Design the sequence.
C-alpha cells in the first residue's frame, strides 16, 4: 500500500522534527490576518463586479451595434486573458506611465496601493463573467412573462426593473455563487503584487519556516472554510430569491375539492 | 575459432585499456552554474554562459591544467545534480550555509556577499531604523535580504516582498518603494542600467557574514583541495583581481 507509506511520512512531517505546534501558534495570527484580507478582496470585488455587470449586460443585449460592441470587446478581453496578466498589467503596467504616476490623488491613494490594484483588477475580471451570466439570463426570461408585463402597459424601463432583472438575478444566483468561489481562489494571485492576503502571508511564513507542507495545508483548510461560508450564504440567498423553486407540490388528494376538479380537467385535456 | 577468440580478447583488452587511459589522462571536470544571476552567471545573446562565476571557473581550470565543461542547471536541482554525479562542482554564487554543508562540501570562499540599501539619487536617506520609520522598503521574498529586512526593520518600516528581484526594481522605479535592500553586487549591475541610473547605494553596506564557495561532493576531498590550491594561486598571481575588475570597480573578496 504505497499511499499508506506516504500518509505516514506526511504525519511524521506534521508532528515530528521542528515543533510544529509552536510554529502554528506563532504564525497563525499572520495567516488569520491574511484570511481577513482575502475575504475583503472577494466581497468587495464580488459586489463591485455585479454592479458593473448589470449595465454591461444591458448594453450587451441591445440590438444596436454601437451599444454592444464596446461591452463585447471588454468581456472578450477579460474572459480571454489570464487573471495574472491582468493584475500585472494594472499593477506593474500602469505604473510605467509618467502621466499616471503624476496623476496626484489617483496615484497616491489608489494605483500606488497593491490593495486597490487588486480590487480593481478582480472587479473588472469578475464583472466580465457576471455580465455574460446576466446576458444569458435576461435572454431566457420566459417570453410569456415579458408579454404579460407588456400587456400591463409597463414601460420598457419598468419591464426591466420590475420583471426582467429580478427574474434574471434569481436565475444567475447559483452561477454567481460559483463565480464568487472562483474569485476566492483567483484572489491568491494578489500575493504576486506584494499583498499579504492568505496566500501571501502563507508564502511569507514558509520562507521563514521552510514548513511548506504544513502551512500550505493550513492555508488550504482556511480557503475551504471561506468557501464553505460563501456556499452557505448563497444557499440562503437562493432560498430567498428563488422561493418559488422550493414550493413542494401537494399531492392531488390534499388539494381543495374545486382545485382537484380543475386539476383533473387539465390532465384530461 | 581459436583465432577469433584471441582477436576478441585482445580487442577487449585494447578497448578497456583505452577507456582506462582516457579517464586517467584527460582530466575533465564538469562544472555546473545557474545562468540566471547576472552578472555572476548568465547566458548571453549567443547562448554562451558568461559572468564572474564562469570566468573564475575557467581561470581555476587553467590554473589546475584541467579541461572543464561548464553546464547550466536550474537552481532547484543544482545540488541534487551534483550528488547524482551529473557534474563534479558547482560554481554558482552559492552561499555556504550549515544546511547545505550537511549534503555537500565547500571550498574556501571565493567572494563575500554583502547587502546594501538602494534609494533614489538626490535624496538624503539615513539607513538606521529610527530614520527609516514609516518608509516602505522592498526586497525579494525567501532571500537573505528579505529576511534581514523583516527581522531588523520590520517594526519600523512597511515591508513589501516580491517574487522576483526584477519586480522589486520595477516598483522602486515606479516610486512605490522608498528604498530596497538587496544583495549588493547584482544590484550594482542594475544601477548601471537606464532604469537604475536614478538610484544609488545608501548608507553603509550590511555585512551579514555571507561567504560564497564552490560546492563539491562530500567525499571528493581531492577535488576540493585542488580548487583551494588553485584559488589561492589565482588570487596571488593577480588573475582574480583582473576578473574582479571586469565586473566591479571595487573588491568583492
Sequence:
Amino acid at each position: 500500500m504505497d499511499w499508506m507509506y506516504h500518509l505516514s511520512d506526511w504525519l511524521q512531517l506534521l508532528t515530528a522534527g521542528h515543533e510544529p505546534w509552536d510554529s502554528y501558534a506563532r504564525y497563525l495570527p499572520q495567516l488569520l490576518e491574511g484570511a481577513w484580507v482575502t475575504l475583503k478582496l472577494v466581497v468587495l470585488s464580488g459586489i463591485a463586479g455585479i454592479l458593473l455587470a448589470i449595465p454591461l449586460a444591458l448594453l450587451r443585449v441591445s440590438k444596436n451595434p454601437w451599444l454592444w460592441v464596446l461591452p463585447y470587446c471588454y468581456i472578450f478581453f477579460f474572459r480571454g486573458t489570464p487573471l495574472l496578466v491582468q493584475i500585472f498589467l494594472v499593477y506593474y503596467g500602469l505604473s510605467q506611465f509618467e502621466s499616471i504616476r503624476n496623476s496626484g490623488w489617483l496615484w497616491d491613494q489608489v494605483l500606488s496601493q497593491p490593495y486597490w490594484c487588486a480590487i480593481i483588477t478582480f472587479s473588472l475580471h469578475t464583472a466580465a463573467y457576471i455580465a455574460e451570466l446576466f446576458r444569458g439570463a435576461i435572454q431566457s426570461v420566459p417570453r410569456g412573462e415579458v408579454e404579460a408585463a407588456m400587456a400591463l402597459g409597463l414601460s420598457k424601463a419598468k419591464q426591466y426593473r420590475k420583471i426582467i432583472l429580478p427574474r434574471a438575478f434569481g436565475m444567475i444566483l447559483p452561477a454567481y455563487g460559483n463565480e464568487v468561489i472562483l474569485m476566492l481562489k483567483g484572489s491568491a494571485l494578489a500575493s504576486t503584487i506584494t499583498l499579504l492576503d492568505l496566500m501571501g502571508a502563507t508564502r511569507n511564513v514558509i520562507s521563514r519556516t521552510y514548513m511548506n507542507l504544513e502551512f500550505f495545508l493550513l492555508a488550504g483548510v482556511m480557503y475551504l472554510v471561506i468557501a464553505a461560508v460563501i456556499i452557505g450564504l448563497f444557499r440562503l440567498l437562493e432560498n430567498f430569491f428563488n422561493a418559488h423553486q422550493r414550493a413542494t407540490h401537494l399531492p392531488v388528494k390534499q388539494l381543495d375539492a374545486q382545485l382537484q376538479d380543475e386539476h383533473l380537467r387539465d390532465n384530461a385535456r | 575459432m581459436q583465432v577469433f577468440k584471441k582477436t576478441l580478447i585482445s580487442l577487449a583488452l585494447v578497448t578497456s585499456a583505452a577507456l582506462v587511459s582516457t579517464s586517467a589522462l584527460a582530466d575533465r571536470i564538469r562544472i555546473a552554474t545557474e545562468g540566471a544571476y547576472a552578472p555572476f552567471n548568465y547566458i548571453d545573446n549567443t547562448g554562451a554562459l558568461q559572468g564572474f562565476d564562469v570566468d573564475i571557473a575557467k581561470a581555476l581550470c587553467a590554473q589546475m591544467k584541467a579541461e572543464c565543461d561548464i553546464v547550466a542547471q536550474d537552481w532547484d536541482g543544482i545540488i541534487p545534480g551534483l550528488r547524482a554525479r551529473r557534474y563534479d562542482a558547482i560554481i554558482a554564487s552559492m552561499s555556504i550555509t550549515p544546511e547545505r554543508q550537511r549534503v555537500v562540501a565547500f571550498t574556501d570562499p571565493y567572494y563575500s556577499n554583502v547587502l546594501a540599501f538602494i534609494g533614489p539619487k538626490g535624496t538624503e536617506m539615513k539607513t538606521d531604523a529610527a530614520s527609516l520609520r514609516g518608509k516602505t522598503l522592498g526586497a525579494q521574498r525567501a532571500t537573505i535580504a528579505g529576511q534581514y529586512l523583516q527581522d531588523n526593520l520590520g517594526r519600523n518600516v512597511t515591508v513589501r516582498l516580491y517574487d522576483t528581484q526584477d519586480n522589486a526594481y520595477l516598483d522602486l522605479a515606479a516610486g512605490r518603494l522608498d528604498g530596497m535592500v538587496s544583495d549588493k553586487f547584482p544590484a550594482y549591475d542594475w544601477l548601471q542600467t537606464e532604469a537604475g541610473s536614478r538610484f544609488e547605494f545608501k548608507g553603509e553596506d550590511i555585512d551579514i557574514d555571507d561567504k560564497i564557495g564552490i560546492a563539491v561532493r562530500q567525499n571528493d576531498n581531492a577535488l576540493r583541495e585542488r580548487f583551494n590550491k588553485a584559488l589561492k594561486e589565482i588570487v596571488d598571481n593577480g588573475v582574480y583581481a583582473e576578473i574582479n575588475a571586469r565586473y566591479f570597480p571595487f573588491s568583492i573578496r
Summary: Chain B touches chain A at residues 138, 141-142, 146-147, 150, 160-163, 167, 170-171, 174-176 (CB under 8 Å). The longest strand of chain B covers residues 199-216.
